[in-house]
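Supplementary Methods. Inverse-folding protocol.

Structures were first reduced to a discrete structure-token string of length 167. This string, shown here, constituted the complete conditioning input.
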């Protein structure tokens, strides 16, 4: 009989993968101050935001989108796709897709929440609705926001996300 146990050393000298057990596809990573944040696709379960100070020991700190959100969808492939948390202008922003519906964001003053209701991001003329598995970049020099996403295309698209930046 084989018994497997997972645990993390309190030091950086050793650690055991997986660092976050379970199915957590499409992870993103953001650092704000001394903390690292990660999230990603959740599909049917609601998304979670994890926090760490060392990239090895993680704790769930937030559920940025409620399962009661009417667009959420509790069917195969439902839920949230490709969540990414960023920090800008004293607020935390969590960007995500609802597969086949579009891109959204929620906002909070603290990473633990409470989080706002989801706000849709408008697609640009000539492009299909935003895809999933996004990555957000904020140019600190100009204050402009950019989103890199698949957008349902063969190649990735770089888009200016003025909806979020204008708030």
């Amino acid at each position: 009989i084989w018994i497997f146990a997972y645990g993390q050393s309190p030091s950086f000298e050793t650690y055991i993968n997986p660092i976050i057990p379970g199915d957590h596809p499409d992870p993103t990573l953001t650092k704000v101050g001394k903390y690292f944040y990660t999230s990603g696709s959740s599909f049917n379960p609601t998304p979670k935001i994890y926090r760490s100070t060392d990239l090895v020991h993680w704790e769930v700190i937030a559920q940025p989108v409620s399962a009661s959100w009417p667009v959420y969808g509790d069917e195969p492939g439902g839920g949230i796709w490709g969540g990414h948390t960023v920090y800008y202008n004293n607020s935390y922003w969590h960007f995500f897709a609802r597969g086949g519906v579009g891109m959204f964001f929620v906002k909070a003053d603290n990473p633990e929440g409470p989080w706002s209701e989801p706000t849709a991001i408008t697609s640009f003329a000539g492009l299909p609705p935003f895809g999933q598995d996004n990555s957000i970049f904020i140019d600190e020099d100009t204050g402009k926001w950019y989103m890199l996403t698949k957008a349902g295309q063969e190649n990735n698209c770089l888009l200016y996300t003025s909806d979020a930046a204008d708030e």
